[in-house]
């Protein structure tokens, strides 16, 4: 089955022309070739179009008016032909055997959602993937069964069943943060989830210009998730409520700490109060006592 499954690559980009070649080369240089590479330019104002033109018909280049990362990924998925979509951010890169391992994991575990393990980089040149390590993939009944243990599933390490993704509405098109979390929670109880535990297959670049560093984006995304959970919009019902909230409180803890480090303690405390009861039920006393204290301490800026 590994040879039969079709896997397309979707790369959303916005003003990353200086990093785009490395990303495209990694997607096109796979030991198991992609079934199409779709580059979605989300209204870039740099030389993204010129870089894309260098690759000719080796990629499908789509330019859209600036609409955000979720809309760009949805647009790319709509134009892709694969059974699965492997998403790659335009400032990241893959190991040469990434799609080979993804196909093998799909064949073994038959997931609807699959997660890669990243290697976090300070510089693209830090990415070392010359030594091909054995594949270790772990299957779960569904995403929530894995995520309740504190497993993060972001779009830059995600492979998703294309038809199912489109059925549930894809990424939230207007959120600047947590648009990917809306998708994984909508697919949270779909049968079949797989995590490629090792080796790391994605070189993820950490840099100053990042959507995740936007206070408004973080606050808006997290408030949307809380509202949607309280309204019962995510599948699984009361039976899986505890699993969903395990995952949501895991996300909240990390991102409220990030808001404080960025100098937004008031916004962090507001989110903290919204999910106070969820954390109390989980006996997260270290967080419940520590975040208010952390939020009133001076922030050391580098």
TrEMBL record:
InterPro entries: Glyco_trans_2-like, Glycosyltransf_2, Nucleotide-diphossugar_trans. It is an enzyme of class 2 (transferase). It comes from the Bacteria. GO terms for molecular function: glycosyltransferase activity. Its EC number is 2.4.-.-. Coiled coil: none annotated. This is Putative glycosyltransferase EpsH. It comes from Posidoniimonas corsicana.
């Amino acid at each position: 089955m590994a040879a039969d499954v079709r896997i397309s690559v979707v790369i959303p980009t916005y003003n990353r022309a200086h990093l785009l070649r490395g990303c495209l080369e990694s997607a096109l240089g796979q030991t198991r070739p992609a079934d199409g590479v779709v580059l979605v330019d989300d209204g870039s104002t740099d030389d993204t179009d010129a870089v894309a033109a260098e690759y000719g018909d080796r990629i499908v280049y789509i330019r859209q008016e600036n609409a955000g990362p979720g809309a760009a990924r949805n647009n790319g998925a709509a134009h892709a032909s694969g059974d699965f979509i492997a998403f790659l951010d335009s400032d990241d890169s893959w190991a040469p055997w990434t799609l080979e391992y993804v196909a093998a994991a799909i064949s073994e575990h038959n997931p609807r959602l699959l997660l890669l393990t990243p290697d976090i980089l300070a510089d693209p040149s830090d990415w070392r993937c010359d030594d091909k390590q054995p594949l270790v993939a772990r299957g779960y009944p569904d995403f929530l069964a894995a995520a309740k243990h504190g497993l993060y599933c972001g779009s830059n390490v995600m492979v998703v069943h294309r038809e199912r993704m489109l059925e549930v509405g894809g990424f939230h098109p207007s959120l600047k943060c947590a648009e990917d979390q809306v998708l994984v929670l909508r697919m949270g109880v779909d049968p079949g989830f797989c995590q490629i535990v090792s080796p790391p297959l994605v070189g993820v670049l950490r840099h100053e210009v990042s959507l995740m560093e936007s206070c408004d984006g973080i606050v808006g995304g997290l408030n949307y998730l809380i509202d949607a959970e309280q309204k019962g919009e995510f599948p699984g019902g009361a039976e899986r409520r505890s699993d969903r909230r395990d995952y949501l409180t895991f996300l909240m803890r990390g991102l409220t700490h990030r808001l404080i480090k960025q100098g937004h303690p008031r916004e962090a405390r507001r989110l903290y109060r919204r999910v106070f009861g969820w954390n109390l039920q989980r006996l997260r006393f270290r967080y419940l006592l520590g975040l208010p204290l952390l939020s009133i301490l001076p922030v050391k800026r580098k």
